[in-house]
Amino acid sequence: MTAKNIAIVGSGVMGLTAAHQLALRGASVTLYDRNRDVGRGCSWWAGGMLALWCEMESAEALIGELGLESLSYWRAHFPGVINKGSLVVAPPRDTPDLKRFAARTSHFEVIDGKRVAALEPDLAGRFETGLFFEKEAHLDPREALGFLSERLQKEFGVRFVMDADVRPESLDADHVLDCRGFEARDVLPDLRGVKGEMLIIRTSEISLARPVRLLHPRIPVYIVPRDDHHFMVGATMIESSDQARISARSMVELLNAAYALHPSFGEAEIIETGTDVRPAFPDNLPRIRRMGKILRLNGLYRHGYLGAPALTRRAAEIVMEGKTFPEVER
Description:
six-stranded mixed β-sheet, single chain
């Protein structure tokens, strides 16, 4: 049987995992992107937290289902996954917020200040209690994007056509997957933008082994450790499609929240700022929409790395096996 010829538009985490899922099933894949480098959109600025149980504080059950599958995918296919869980803390005055967070989530252990210090020695004496989500994990998004890109080309022969501003409708293939994110608003009128802003800072004054969420009254912030004393601090959620640079207010609030976690962050060097627009549908749940030979995969909102592998597995089985998935084909 002749391999199906599949075109994918978009090289973010959605496009790359779609290419991988299809290549695993024997498809011949060509991936197009208007940028010169892989993944230079929302996926580049993500935190990379595989924190599905934490996300259930405000997400629907479908996100938990997709997240559990995606967590297994990353552990199986990307060696850079760090399996040290995640920690949620709050200043003493905000203990009620921590209790509310606990009431909405699961798969955690309520820990005291001594256990907080055992997990994160540099936070010793700063928090009286916390929530430890031992089964969660995290990864460096940029490493994951590079790893997948290289593997797709070397092991599966996926063809990358970069710096190519093409429309899905113009491509000659058996099936086309539109993975353009917010760019697809031209054909998905109910897609909206949610602006996210982040910082990368560097300091050797503090070390963290895992992502830490601080339930701050103004901006609930997460800080994700990366290599070489770098930390990703994120992220705002602003109902806006403006992709301009980070605002002064957002930078101040993110830095204030990091300082509230530990004063040593006040002396950190700001290495990079980033902002982009997350694509979201009105209910903040992802969709696969069939339009002839085109499948449009979109709406991952703030759950890119947590949702993409599971969503693209479904898309691959639609294309290759004719399956249907009512929970996402809406």
